[in-house]
Amino acid sequence: MSPQPDRGPRRTVVAFHAHPDDEALLTAGTMATVAAQGHRVVLVVATDGSLGLAGEDFGAKGGELALTRSAEVEASARALGVARVESLGYADSGSGPELSPDPPGRVRFARADLDEAAARLAEILLAERADLLLTYDRNGGYGHRDHVRVHEVGAAAADRVRAASGRPLRVLEATVPRDLICRALDLVARVYRFPPEFHRSSFDRAFSAGGEITHRIPVHRQIRAKRTSMRAHASQASGGDVRTLAMLLRIPRPLFDLVFGWEWYREAGSAGGSRLTDVFEAAR
After folding, report:
1. How many CB atoms lie within 10 A of CB 204?
2. Which residue has the higher pLDDT, 195 or 43?
3. Which of 11, 110, 181, 235 falls between 20 and 30 A from 51, CA-CA?
4. pTM above 0.70, yes or no
5. CATH number for 244
6. A single GO molecular function, which one (predicted)?
């Protein structure tokens, strides 16, 4: 039997997301790639997703939907090779204009105490001896209040871990090049009329500028796992074809593979512009 190739030291990557299904859209390919390389991948979800939109078959908002989405994220994690799934236990803050009152005995993530939430995440990072933390950029992607909070909590937790352990912990902020999205939307607008509530101008401030990107990760080899991860969140593809996941899953495979074959990150503390292709390589 020929010897197995040396893949270097086994590392641990913790992916921190706001809701069940967020991991499928922004970091699924990276997580599957890292897991396939023999590294340990841990998924941490901040909220229960109880205010997500879903068809009646999946239960109304609240506890029933939260249970459904918990099972969905577990299925997604299995498809990606994730070793452990944890929840910080916060209530979904929703995406409406007003932040709803806290449910009994729970706190919505957007109003969670920063130090307390960072301590919860840091406890997991320290127990796992994490080498790399995946979070979101400072805009929280498209600006969802829970996504912005993930960025804030992730940064604070990383500082806690470095202070407590003395070990380096790199942070990569999942994002998409803003200019790429805007060009794509402008092309789509030539053949498709967006609904009145859609504000194209909001994307001029969303995600990250192309010059800030440090890592452009090829995930083509794990595109099947990424698509399976997206399909696992059936509740968030329900309620009509206008849902984001529903629309994305209708893209034919060749085009889907092209669109989702890359994932982008900005390394915290870096000036950007590196475009590295390995998450374990630090930007200089």
Report:
1. 11
2. 43
3. 181
4. yes
5. 3.40.50.10320
6. hydrolase activity, acting on carbon-nitrogen (but not peptide) bonds, in linear amides
